[in-house]
Recover the amino acids of this structure.
């Protein structure tokens, strides 16, 4: 129950800070830009001294097959979570695909360590609650940068909080194993961001804006399942 | 009679030739495929190119650059700010943006080497002069990254790309928002300086 508390604290902070810091014209979709930028630079510092060094060490030391296995286990958990959103959007094909993936990978793939479903041509549904809300017409709302978590939007953050209630990893009963898994998932996610980070460093003029634009566009594209909105 | 026949024959040959060249000129999906196939073929036959910045730049300049409309990309990325820039600033912006894009693309190519590309069928109405060619780059881990190219027909009839959309993220839109932020906070000259700094 600490997650909703964190959310409330974040929003309270955001409101408190935005009052005195809104001296620049805000970009559309990002009314909290001054606060977001503050949290973004806090996150960067934190990442620079903690997350990134750990992820780099893990990436350097752990052999590739192990890393792939770890990624696959968390991916399998995400596929299981995706089922809920497939169903809520009445997407039968995706529901069937994700169900097939989870069943095959959990059994023959030994708890998800091996991803046998992908080479079989069963695609990931890749849905979540944020996308589900978007599918049913809810806009992204204000762009948010959450401490330690990074870029999101009001809609997507609400979705993530709710997804925490049926996260397979949080259902592991042993506290020690659960905490280790949660830590490992953070590291695995961070390692997965290395290529995108390298590209951003090469291409971006203003990293905050680059990340915001990429995040919001990517999410919109996922809501529309890859179809692009007609621009005018 | 004989003369008629040979004339018909000539007309037929001519029409086939013009059809072929028209095809080569007008099919934007064929263009994307040819360029991508050419570039990946070079990278496969001579992987050392990736470690050689000069050779890589040559490859990009000869194969990719002629098929992009950088002036249009710059204008789109500038959006409303384009009109605020002086002609000198506009020229500088176009040149610097082009250099940055070429550099970024060189960096991205390295990770494309061993991937295959699927081309989605293009549904194009006759007379259309703005299309999006959809491709999927298949990675080693089985995940496909959708990459779409927006192309526009130029005055001479050739198709040129003005946007690349990677996994739903448009390059031009991304830069438009960045340009906007930099211009809002620091002005057009600062943007030109930052573009130059990025390409060093």
């Amino acid at each position: 129950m600490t997650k909703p508390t964190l959310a409330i604290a974040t929003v309270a902070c955001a409101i408190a800070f935005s009052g005195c810091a809104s001296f620049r014209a805000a970009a559309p979709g990002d009314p909290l830009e001054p606060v977001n930028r503050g949290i973004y630079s806090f996150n960067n510092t934190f990442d620079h001294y903690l997350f990134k060094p750990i992820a780099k060490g893990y990436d350097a030391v752990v052999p590739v097959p192990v890393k792939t296995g770890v990624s696959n286990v968390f991916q399998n958990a995400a596929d299981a979570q995706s089922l809920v959103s497939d169903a809520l959007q009445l997407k039968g094909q995706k529901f069937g695909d994700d169900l097939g993936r989870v069943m095959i990978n959990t059994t023959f793939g030994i708890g998800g360590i091996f991803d046998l479903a992908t080479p079989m041509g069963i695609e990931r549904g890749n849905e979540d609650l944020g996308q589900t809300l978007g599918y049913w017409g809810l806009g992204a709302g204000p762009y948010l940068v959450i401490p330690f978590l990074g870029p999101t939007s009001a809609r997507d953050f609400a979705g993530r909080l709710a997804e925490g209630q049926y996260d397979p990893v949080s259902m592991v009963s042993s506290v020690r194993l659960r905490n280790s898994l949660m830590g490992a998932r953070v590291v695995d996610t961070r390692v997965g961001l290395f290529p995108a980070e390298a590209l951003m460093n090469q291409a971006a003029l203003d990293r905050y804006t680059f990340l915001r634009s990429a995040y919001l566009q990517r999410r919109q594209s996922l809501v529309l399942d890859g179809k692009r909105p007609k621009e005018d | 009679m004989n003369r008629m026949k040979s004339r018909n024959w000539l007309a037929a040959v001519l029409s086939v030739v013009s059809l072929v060249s028209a095809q080569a000129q007008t099919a934007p999906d064929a263009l994307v495929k040819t360029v991508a196939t050419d570039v990946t073929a070079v990278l496969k036959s001579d992987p050392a190119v990736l470690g050689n910045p000069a050779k890589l730049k040559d490859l990009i300049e000869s194969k990719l650059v002629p098929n992009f409309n950088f002036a249009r990309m710059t204008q789109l990325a500038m959006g409303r700010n384009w009109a605020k820039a002086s002609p000198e600033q506009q020229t500088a912006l176009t040149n610097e943006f082009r250099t940055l894009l070429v550099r970024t693309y060189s960096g991205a190519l390295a990770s494309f080497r061993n991937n295959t590309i699927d081309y989605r069928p293009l549904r194009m109405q006759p007379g259309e002069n703005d299309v999006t060619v959809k491709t999927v780059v298949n990675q080693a881990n089985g995940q496909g990254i959708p990459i779409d190219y927006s192309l526009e027909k130029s005055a001479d009839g050739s198709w040129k790309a003005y946007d690349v959309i990677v996994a739903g993220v448009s390059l031009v839109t991304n830069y438009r928002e960045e340009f906007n932020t930099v211009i809002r906070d620091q002005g057009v000259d600062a943007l030109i300086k930052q573009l130059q700094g990025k390409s060093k």
About this structure: Residues 13-23 of chain A have pLDDT under 50 and may be disordered. Chain A has nine helices and two strands. The radius of gyration of chain A is 19 Å. Strands of chain A lie at 143-146, 150-153.
